[in-house]
Structure formats: structure tokens, C-alpha cells
Amino acid sequence: MDNFDNVRTTFGDLDYMVHSEASLLRDVMSRHDLQQILEIGFYHGKSSAYIAAILEDRGHGHLVTVDRTTAARRDPNIHQVLARLGLTHRVETIFAERSYTWELARMIQQSPRPQFDLCYFDGGHTWDATGFGFVLVDFLLRPGGWILFDDLPWTIGEAASGMAKEPAHWRQASADERATPAVRMVFDILVPRLGYTDLHIINNGRWGLARKPGDTGTLPALKPRRRFLKGLFG
Question: Is 3 helix (H, G, I), strand (E, B) or coil?
Fold first, then answer.
């Protein structure tokens, strides 16, 4: 049994990524030879395990994954999941005290700055968290790299309906914001505004995939990107 199938055998019932989604992610990673991966949001670490398994089966690559410190208290947590599967060596786990955006800022300040082939983005989900997070991730994606957004249809209202206690910052949202799929807004508005191409809605409408502009040999010629703020608002 390869490492990929071993994730399903060992942790098939664990939240959240299902095997069919992992297979789709594997296709994307293999098709474009994506080796250096950044993940925003790992919860128990099941998606991280699938990514690490894909890399291990291919014999190369590394994952950096970020979530809140509260994730360390999950049962099982990411360290336990990866250790049981023998995949710890493929993953660097970062726990953020408050927000993944701060950890991304620290990465941006590193010299040399990390450069990733793919970001699997599954954190925050609100307009401000996802929008700002995407802008920061853009600094860390190599030219021609890819970003994959999870939960395009997600809304505050639907998520809160299944909770015993709604987070305080959600309760401050207007009715319009509560009903609007914020991740989809980021994908529809900000992603093309920063010049990303090859936009695809996949996984039955749940995922949005896009490619950062760059000299890849397969993308059409692009005009030079304007400075960051002008590119967003000018």
C-alpha cells in the first residue's frame, strides 16, 4: 500500500479532507510538478497528511502548514496523525498564537524569502482574513505558482447555524456579510485583479484554483504587474 492510500485506511473518518478531494489535489500537484507546498489551516492534519503522502510517494517535496495553537489540542492532533503515518519528516508545522497572517508576515521577512509552488488555502474564510491572507500568500508564491482555495460557498450565516456559540467577531457582521460567500468574493475580485490566470472552479464548486503570473513557458505574455496597492485599487 502506498502512503496516499494509507491515509484513507488509517484516518478515513477523520475531518476534513475526503479521499476524492485528496485524489483531485494529487492530480493537480502531479500535473504541474508542485513540490514546495504551503497550507493555511490544517485542523487535525488530515489534509496535511494527504499532501505529505503525495510528496512521499513521489520521493520529493516539502509542506509548510499553519494553524492556530488551539489545533494542538485536537484529538488526534497533527503531530499524532503524521507520526502514525510516518510522514513527519515531510512537514513543518507552525502554530499561530492569533492569526496565520502574522506567521505569513514573518515568512515574508525571511531572507531568502520562502517560495512555494502551491498554497492550499483553508483558513479564516471571512472577507478580511481570506483577502489579506491571499495578498500575503502572493508574496510567497513563485512566479507561475498556484493557489487553491477551499470552501468557496462558505458563509458566516450557514457556518454559525451549526454552532452552539457563535464567535464574537461573526456576530458583528451585517446581514449582507453573513449571507455572502466571502472566499468566492476573494476568488472573483482579488485573484484576477492581481493578474492570476487559469482560474477554475472545481470539486463541485467547492474549490477555486488559479495561477500566479510568471514566465512558465506556457502562459501568454503578460503586462508588467503594477505596484501592489495600485494593482489592487488603482
Answer: helix
Look at residue 162 in the predicted model and tell me its pLDDT: 83
Calculated CA dihedral for residues 150, 152, 155, 161, nearest 10 degrees: -60
Reported as a single tens digit per residue, the pLDDT across 40-62 is: 999 999 999 999 999 999 999 99
Residue 210 has pLDDT above 60, yes or no: yes
Q: Are 37 and 66 in contact (CB under 8 A)?
A: no
All three cell numbers of 178, joined, read 453573513
Beta carbons within 10 angstroms of residue 76's beta carbon: 15
Model-level pTM? 0.91
CB 158 within 8 A of CB 182: no
Q: What domains can you pick out in the chain, each with its CATH number?
A: 3-233 (3.40.50.150)
